[in-house]
Amino acid sequence: MASKRSDHRLQDLEAVAGNGLINRRALLGRGALFAGAIGTGVGTSPTGAAAEPLAVDSWSLGPGNVIPAYGVPAKYEDKVVRTLTNPAGNPGGQNARTPHHLLNGTITPNGLHFVIARAGFPDIDPAKHRLVIHGLVKRPLVFTLDTLARYPMVSRITFVECGGNSGPLFRKEPVQANVQAIHGLVSCAEWTGGRLSTLLDETGIDPKAKWFIAEGTDGANMNRSIPLAKALDDAMIALYQNGERIAPSNGYPMRLLVPGYEGNMNVKWLHRIKLLESPIMAINETKQYTILRPDGKAWQFYFPQEVKSFITHPSPGLTLKGPGFYEISGLAYSGNGRIAKVMVSADGGKSYAQAALQEPVLSKALTRFRMPWRWDGQPVVLQSRAWDEAGNVQPTRAEFLADRGEPKSNPPVTAFPMEHMNAISSWGIDSTGETKHVYV
Ligand SMILES: Nc1nc2c(c(=O)[nH]1)N[C@H]1C(S)=C(S)[C@@H](COP(=O)(O)O)O[C@H]1N2
Ligand SMILES: [Mo]
Predict the structure, then answer these.
(1) Which of 246, 264, 273, 418 to mutate to test the pocket of ligand 1 (most atoms within 8 A of CB)?
(2) What pTM value is reported for the model?
């Protein structure tokens, strides 16, 4: 008897918003229906498994390769790399951006984690490295890597995002660049190490202490002032990144991790924590990482990264291969907690449907969202908009600019103004399937 399910076609699935967004519930637990829909020529047409026997491929005819002691990705994946702003390593800053348009899931592999380094990365001998905690403490202490390893450890999956990430959206004309160039200064890893509060239990805290400064031992000796409350909440001294020792450019052998806070405060190559009564007004909290507002006032000390999302698939530079079924997918996150909801639009924000959030949905971590979509081949504009559990909503571009003022210029894409830009991004797809960054 013919299956009733095969009568259902992708075309018949309940549309929930304009331009082909499909009710995600329509696909739940109905894989057969979905596979059937592909086979009917609605989407791309894989060869039916029963239609012909598998060919004998060359790689099945002999023994395989020798397993390397430290594995690297398949050689066919050599385009999945970071983009570097200063590949010659000239004096000054070096930035590397994460290729989110070529990744899936939520954890950034260590070799692809973004990097901002004021002075390149130092070559630190872990046996000689020291962390000192002093200032307004009862007992100043010096820690080696070995002594730190004897304290209880915790693991936490959290994102780090530069305050300049998405800065290219703060531009008069939509920059013609991909997700890596626009949103590549955010990454997410599982970090393991000790809680800063545990170490402060050891040193004791002078009641006058209200802030601490964290300082790195890199050539820039980058330092930041952070409220002591964060040290007593969820700040960590991270020693491991995705299970292995922290990557050299991400802070080897130890970094400060202040989950959800502006990336710059996550001081790498950490060698000093000093407790103080007030902030020190470091260069990165005065000249840099401040936001000059249209009324002439400046915002200083921007702590949690505000709620944001962007679509990674499809996205600028990726071309759709003909009408049919696609999964729209992207990343959402907030420095204020968990992602509560992501809405996706295919008609430039006129109508929205709620995306599925991929478990686990963790506080201050990247969350993957997914939305089934049937593209009919007409021009569309894709957008995503996120809400966090603290009730914050990602602003539209118009809302963001109403607050911050209109951009006056078109800086080069490699510039990343510290705007804490978190407005909605729009990807326009034309009838050939080409995807471009647009403003709506
Ligand atoms: N010591 C030191 N820490 C640093 C930096 C630096 O240049 N030196 N860059 C900061 C900036 S601007 C950011 S956004 C984050 C980036 O962390 P990542 O390079 O591990 O992604 O590190 C911060 N910590
Ligand atoms: Mo940054």
Answers:
(1) 264
(2) 0.92
Share of the chain above pLDDT 90, in %: 80
CA contacts within 13 A on the Cβ side of 47: 7
Q: Contact 136/277 with Cβ under 8 angstroms? A: yes
In the structure, which protein residues have their CB atom closer than 6 angstroms to any atom of ligand 1? Answer: 113-118, 160, 162, 187, 216, 218, 220, 222, 250, 263-264, 266-269
Q: How far is CA 133 from the centre of its chain?
A: 31
Task: Identify the sign of the CA torsion 125, 127, 132, 133.
Answer: positive
Q: In ligand 1, which atom is closest to the CA atom of 249?
A: 19
Per-residue burial over 324-363, b if 16 or more Cβ lie within 10 Å, else e, is bbbebbbbbbbbbbbbbebbbbbbbbeebbbbbbeeebbb
Helices (H), 106-187: 145-148, 179-183
Structure-model confidence comparison of residues 64 and 412, the more confident one: 64
Residue closest to 115 by CA, chosen among 88, 141, 84, 143: 84
The model's pLDDT over 121-176, given as tens digits with 9 standing for 90+, comes to 999 999 999 999 999 999 999 999 999 999 999 999 999 999 999 999 999 999 99
Q: Collect contacts of 3-11 with beta carbons under 8 A, ≥24 apart.
A: 3/32, 5/30, 5/32, 5/33, 5/36, 6/33, 6/36, 8/33, 8/36, 8/37, 9/37, 9/40, 9/42, 10/34, 10/37, 10/42, 10/43, 10/324, 10/325, 10/374, 11/42, 11/374
pLDDT at 296: 87
The pLDDT tens digits of the residues spanning 312-324 come to 999 999 999 999 9
